[in-house]
Specification:
The chain is an alpha+beta fold. 34% of the residues lie in helices and 27% in strands. It has three helices and four strands, in the order βαββαβα. A four-stranded antiparallel beta sheet has the order 1-4-2-3. Strand 2 and strand 3 (43-46) form a beta hairpin. The radius of gyration is 11 Å and the shape is globular.
Length: 86
Amino acid sequence: MKERQVVIGHALGLHARAAAKLVQLAGQFQSSVVLVRDGAQPGEADARSILSILLLAAGHGSSLLVRADGADEDEALEKICEYLSG
């Protein structure tokens, strides 16, 4: 399992369109990908579930821990963190 901290760089945060693109991206990998948010509203979301991503309410500048576990975890972590950082 690999994990990395990332700051949301999208101007509107993880809104519906950005979350949908993240779900599509996460679906390209065999690894499971989880987003973890600490702070005032802690939460955890499966990156393949648009509803759980939206419930994180991660706005611009929010910090998330991205955790990938599986055969292609290095590539999954790299691509998803790159996408989230904007």
